[in-house]
Amino acid sequence: MEQYEKVEKIGEGTYGVVYKARDRATNETIALKKIRLEQEDEGVPSTAIREISLLKEMQHGNIVKLHDVVHSEKRIWLVFEYLDLDLKKFMDSCPEFAKSPALIKLADFGLARAFGIPVRTFTHEVVTLWYRAPEILLGARQYSTPVDVWSVGCIFAEMVNQKPLFPGDSEIDELFKIFRVLGTPNEQTWPGVSSLPDYKSAFPRWQAEDLATVVPNLEPLGLDLLSKMLRFEPNKRITARQALEHEYFKDMEMVQ
């Protein structure tokens, strides 16, 4: 670790601390993520293994670059490119964010998974609550990439509204916030929903609101895209590839 000089702490999470640092060899500013191993009886946390393996595979202009992995006693250091602006802070400070040409990069892949077979049995407790898809909230153990499209839809609306779309403080509150906007699902709007483990026939019956009143500053093409990202039925939700090909993005240059 002699190659890297810590400058300041810029974040802290469940498994470690992130520092702004300098690479002494190149004088480049980098980010150091320290993963604690002191409390781990079974070695390196699975979240760290996932993050390292996925980032080593993925090379894309919108994904943070992992430069190096350094293992020392009782800790692992991940060396990332340094991103000088946090998305949420930028959204809070820049009302014109949705129109900004700023380059967005994905980071923190601790809960990410590689996928091959589209549907597998996973844990119930994934995805930050405000961006959690309804099938997960209702207890589905089999889910796939549509849950990510739902999350992106929530972030899309948040970028436009400058506030979270479904800021629930518990799983049931999150569900009810979704239902108040999109309507309470039933077998007609979401075939099979009543068979999900946490679905209750006693749920309050809300009618769907017009998305144009929920996200009033979004143009019609954007509202069309958002509505397709926030479909209840996962198999009917727009895919990531289809979303990129949507008319809303027709005049935008994509990063390769």
TrEMBL record:
<dbReference type="Pfam" id="PF00069">
    <property type="entry name" value="Pkinase"/>
</dbReference>
<protein>
    <recommendedName>
        <fullName>[RNA-polymerase]-subunit kinase</fullName>
        <ecNumber>2.7.11.23</ecNumber>
    </recommendedName>
</protein>
<dbReference type="GO" id="GO:0004693">
    <property type="term" value="F:cyclin-dependent protein serine/threonine kinase activity"/>
</dbReference>
<dbReference type="GO" id="GO:0007165">
    <property type="term" value="P:signal transduction"/>
</dbReference>
<dbReference type="GO" id="GO:0005524">
    <property type="term" value="F:ATP binding"/>
</dbReference>
<dbReference type="GO" id="GO:0000307">
    <property type="term" value="C:cyclin-dependent protein kinase holoenzyme complex"/>
</dbReference>
<feature type="domain" description="Protein kinase">
    <location>
        <begin position="4"/>
        <end position="249"/>
    </location>
</feature>
<dbReference type="GO" id="GO:0005634">
    <property type="term" value="C:nucleus"/>
</dbReference>
<dbReference type="InterPro" id="IPR000719">
    <property type="entry name" value="Prot_kinase_dom"/>
</dbReference>
<dbReference type="GO" id="GO:0000082">
    <property type="term" value="P:G1/S transition of mitotic cell cycle"/>
</dbReference>
<keyword id="KW-0067">ATP-binding</keyword>
<keyword id="KW-0547">Nucleotide-binding</keyword>
<dbReference type="GO" id="GO:0030332">
    <property type="term" value="F:cyclin binding"/>
</dbReference>
<keyword id="KW-0597">Phosphoprotein</keyword>
<dbReference type="GO" id="GO:0005737">
    <property type="term" value="C:cytoplasm"/>
</dbReference>
<feature type="binding site">
    <location>
        <position position="33"/>
    </location>
    <ligand>
        <name>ATP</name>
    </ligand>
</feature>
<dbReference type="InterPro" id="IPR050108">
    <property type="entry name" value="CDK"/>
</dbReference>
<dbReference type="InterPro" id="IPR011009">
    <property type="entry name" value="Kinase-like_dom_sf"/>
</dbReference>
<dbReference type="GO" id="GO:0010389">
    <property type="term" value="P:regulation of G2/M transition of mitotic cell cycle"/>
</dbReference>
<dbReference type="GO" id="GO:0051445">
    <property type="term" value="P:regulation of meiotic cell cycle"/>
</dbReference>
<dbReference type="GO" id="GO:0008353">
    <property type="term" value="F:RNA polymerase II CTD heptapeptide repeat kinase activity"/>
</dbReference>
<dbReference type="InterPro" id="IPR017441">
    <property type="entry name" value="Protein_kinase_ATP_BS"/>
</dbReference>
